[in-house]
Amino acid sequence: MAAGVNPAAAVTIALPLGLLGTMVWVAHMTLDVTFVHMADKAAEEGNLEKICFWHVVPPQILMFLLCVVPATAATYFGSTAVKGIIDSLTGRPLTVLTVIGGLLPALGIAMNLRAIGRPGTLLFFLVGFILVVYLKLPVIAVAVLAGVIGYFYTMLSNQTPQAAAAGDSGGAAPIEDDEEDF
């Protein structure tokens, strides 16, 4: 907006840039796999320092190059440079970016539908749907109730069989031997 672009064009540009950010993140994670293999090789050698190095330093340098450098350049050159880039995108490129931006909500809905279709999730979705549509409860109230139910569901499903049989509330089991585990 500082470049003098109308709000509709700003949203049109922001959505594809969000997609671009996602693609940069996926590229970062894909390239990081090479560092994991190098860390695995160092683990086979038993070299802890190399493992730590491959785990921390190169991924951070890569992320710096993929994110910080472009963001710093855009900030340094300011709104006139951004306006120049936007002006160069007018016509077909801006139309393509608009179409891509329009697809993002459909992608989000598809991801939600895929998550809802997982075993154990569909029942919760149907209960929430019935509470909102047929019982006319506010969505916020249903969301808070779902959060509480989700918390207890997670706590109960993560209990060990011994803790569940003993009626333990998920806390740490007391250590009964004299030796400490490290």
TrEMBL record:
Subcellular location: Cell membrane
GO cellular component: plasma membrane
Membrane-spanning segments: 62-82, 94-116, 122-153
Membrane topology: Multi-pass membrane protein
Pfam families registered for this protein in UniProt: EII-Sor (PF03609)
Biological process (GO), any one: phosphoenolpyruvate-dependent sugar phosphotransferase system
UniProt cross-references to PROSITE patterns, sorted A to Z: PTS_EIIC_TYPE_4
Keyword terms, alphabetized: Cell membrane, Membrane, Phosphotransferase system, Sugar transport, Transmembrane, Transmembrane helix, Transport
Primary location recorded for the protein, binned into one broad class: membrane
Name of this protein: N-acetylgalactosamine permease IIC component 1
